[in-house]
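Discussion board: Methods & Data

I've been asked by a reviewer to show the raw model output for two of the constructs in my manuscript, not just the figures. I'm not sure how much to include, so I'm pasting the format here to get opinions. Each protein appears as its amino acid sequence followed by a line of discrete structure tokens. Is this the kind of thing reviewers expect to see in a supplement, or should I convert it first? Here is construct A:
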Amino acid sequence: MSPKNTEAWNLIESVLAGSEAIIALGITLEDMSEDGETVVLGMPKQAELTRGDGTIYHGGPVASLIDIAGDMVVAVRAGGGVPTISLRVDYLRPCTGPYLLATARLRRGGRTISVADVDVHDDQGRLCAVGRGTYSSLVG
């Protein structure tokens, strides 16, 4: 990706740091494109985020990662966190490994509604989940 857009980077870090739920999930900003239309978030494995024998992420935190990544790519354009209107998640394979990376791309940034597509990869680069979120384009 290109060198970071400092203003957008700081905005996303501020939104992430302002949410106890996001902090509890351990989600961090890893990368973003210069234009802010692609954002990459990371989420480390924690025992509380797994199911079964502790090797597979529970679907709930994966869905949250997708939602938050989509929200952040829209937030860059909107100037702050935005409400989610709808979210769809498809789990393609078990999400495993020490961390996950969610890459969100702004699909459409409209005046009132925006859409983001999100791919989630494990530490070995395997695609394990995809999602699409629809968000308000207005901070709120």
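Construct B, same format:
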Amino acid sequence: MKAIVTPLIAMALLAAPGSLLAQSAHNDPYVAGPANQSRLAQQVRHELLMLPYYSIFDDLAFRINGSMVTLLGSVTRPTLKSDAENVVKRIEGVTQVDNQIEVLPLSPQDNRIRLAVYRAIYGDPQIGDRYGHRALPSIHIIVKNGNVTLEGVVANQGDKNLINIRANGVPGVFKVTNNLVVEG
């Protein structure tokens, strides 16, 4: 069976529930497998999005291979890693969970960078008005040891470039990896 790789952010933005795009990497949209895997993917996605401490500073993704779910991504809280595993284990049809979620190191400097990048991106009216007014905004900011990774989905290449410029302009950022996917 084909493995399904899911970015939670991309699915949150797609207009039609159950719409699926092409697969290329762990954080890119995924290809639909058999109908039972598509249903399972929707259930896993829903459970992960409902986690109470899941924020824009975390990135959760998953891969499904048969009845095994592999959890991927990075989180700021160790409890979010274990909570994600626990909710996925309880889904009907899941027999095994491989939790590969990375817990980001505690760092006051990284916390400062997270907030500064958040303000730089979502404080810009061109970006904040379009992407910031959702329960879970579509652009996720992952900071590890001063390095910023941007995950999620944007409407066009111009937005992707503007967000990259804003993140690169934050003092203290060593490097920005822009993994944002342009919709469509």
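Answer (T.O., handling editor elsewhere):
This is acceptable in a supplement if you add a one-line summary per construct. For B, something like: The radius of gyration is 16 Å.
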